[in-house]
Design brief:
heterodimer; A: mainly alpha; 3-stranded antiparallel beta sheet; 4 helices; 11% strand; extended; B: alpha+beta; 3-stranded mixed beta sheet; 9 helices; 31% helix
Amino acid sequence: MQTEEMIIVNEFCVHHRIDLSFIRALKDSGLIEITTSDEKLYLPETQLPYLEKLARLYYELDINLEGIETISYLLNRMNNMQEEIWRLKNRLSLYEND
Amino acid sequence: MEFIDYYHVLGINKNASEDDIKKAYRKLARKLHPDLNPNDQEAHLKFQQINEANEVLSDPEKRKKYDTYGKDWQHADQFEQQKRSGSRQRSSDDRQFYNSADSDFSSFFESMFGGSARTQQTKFRGADYQAAISLNLTDALITHKQTLTVNGKNISITVPAGIENGQVIKLKGYGAPGVQGGPGGDLYISFSITPHPKYKRLKNDLYTNVKIDLYTALLGGDVTMDTLTGKVKLKVSPETQPGTKIRLKGKGFPVYKKEGEHGDLYITYEVGLPTNLTEEQKSLFTALSNLK
């Protein structure tokens, strides 16, 4: 079984000087997943870069939650399309003459 | 040292109020922020410029200095001299910091404001860097080390076997240092794999053509071929048609980050017809065709 490293949300908030309410709002909007254990909130370490990105959008650029949701969705679509382009390019190379 | 018109960078005029500056900066930052423009070097560069402009123009004291020396920046030598004499009292750590080759600011900014401008309040994440590595198909077969130079720093990385054309690896914190103590950016390394003359690759599978002669195609036999990892003996079935495809399980490309796992090798048979037939061969082929 694979073990997953978890980060205590409170520590994350203290380290980044952000409000816990922001994290709760992200969770409520479905942008991040949080686990509760012994009344403490945890988030998977793998989500850390993504959460830091969302925090930057909110605190550095004053983008509200609705805006963050939209941006997140569009960036995700953009990444998928980028990957699809690479997949298709690699596939196309099978049929191209050198 | 190139003069940078910070007003032009932010798209405002010289009489702009603090509020105008803030608004202009916010608007551009939302457009050019590295998080919103992944893999866009130009946007990262512009973001650095607007940060720099904001650092100066949003601080009344620095803005005054800029307005005095900015346009006629060649006269900044005088200003530099004054700054140097004043800076003798600074700690050696500070000097080292100002002279850092990894600065996020233009030489113009460093010259005008030195490191003192870094005491501003806003923290920003450093810009992401992009790098590209070109590999041969055979290089991507095995896990190996590569050294690349990014902004004067040598970085050694391990390239796992099975890396794909177009794949991007992120090295966290290897981008530009953060501004005002913000986190460092990341380094994105994209891999391009040059096509192999004999093998085509699709994910973990390899595709190649093998030429067999007419007699082997008709009567069957053994053929030895070179693969990327060594020689392989193929058993050709009798009456093999041109274009017949066979699969050698596990003889393809290594699966990325899954040691010991490999894709398959697909071989398409090409049948070479004999040329320069002797009279005897011609008569035998004629006799053969009459048997139809």
